[in-house]
Amino acid sequence: MNVKFLNPFVEAAYEVLQAEVAIEIARGELSLEKEAYVTNDVTAIISVVGLVEGTVFYGMDQRAAVSFASRMLSEPFEAFNHLAQSGIAELANVITGRATVKLSLSGYEATISPPTMLIGKGSTISTLDFARLVVPLQSSIGSIVIHLALREGARQLGLAAATMPVPARPSLMR
């Protein structure tokens, strides 16, 4: 994992959480994990493709997810219902989107997938040969842990293969 991908995500998380949730956050101690990711109560997953590629996980316990969604949507939630899930998915989407804009300003163009929500603790997700940089963020209403499983993408390799002409269908009978 290239650490130059870290700052855009931390900056984006600070900006988005302050603007959308109106809270101050503090970054905890960074760590590098190579084993599979084990989900928390709530995990938002977003893929990144382009000159940066990989996956970003946003994990939190259910209490924190409900608190973040309640503050974001200005609506008190008692449970982590469909609307609260949508709020957390959008939070992850906005943080990742803002981080990819920051990455593009450094020459790393990338696009992101729509968020996927995984609800339930203990699922294992392999990132294969991607080490994950773990970024814990604490606030007064709960913690969110960002897992960055990112690497520099190939600059031209995939593009050349994707733009090759498709040959005519070979005949099996001559």
Walkthrough of the structure:
With 174 residues, the chain is of the alpha+beta class. The protein has one domain: Chemotaxis protein chec. The protein is built from 4 helices and 10 strands; from the N terminus they run αβββββααβββββα. The strands form 2 sheets. Strands 1, 2, 4, 5, 6, 7, 9 and 10 form an 8-stranded antiparallel sheet that branches. β4 (42-50) and β5 form a beta hairpin. The longest helix has 24 residues, at 82-105. It is globular, with a radius of gyration of 19 Å. The N and C termini lie far apart (52 Å).
Concise description?
This protein has 174 residues and is of the alpha+beta class. It is built from 4 helices and 10 strands.
List low-pLDDT spans. Answer: none
**Radius of gyration (Å):** 19 Å
Structural class: alpha+beta
Q: What number of domains?
A: 1
The CATH class designation is Alpha Beta
Oligomer: single chain
Distance between the termini: 52 Å
Topology (SSEs and partners):
Elements: H1 6-21, E1 26-27, E2 31-33, E3 37-38, E4 42-50, E5 52-60, H2 62-73, H3 82-105, E6 110-112, E7 116-119, E8 124-125, E9 132-139, E10 142-152, H4 157-162
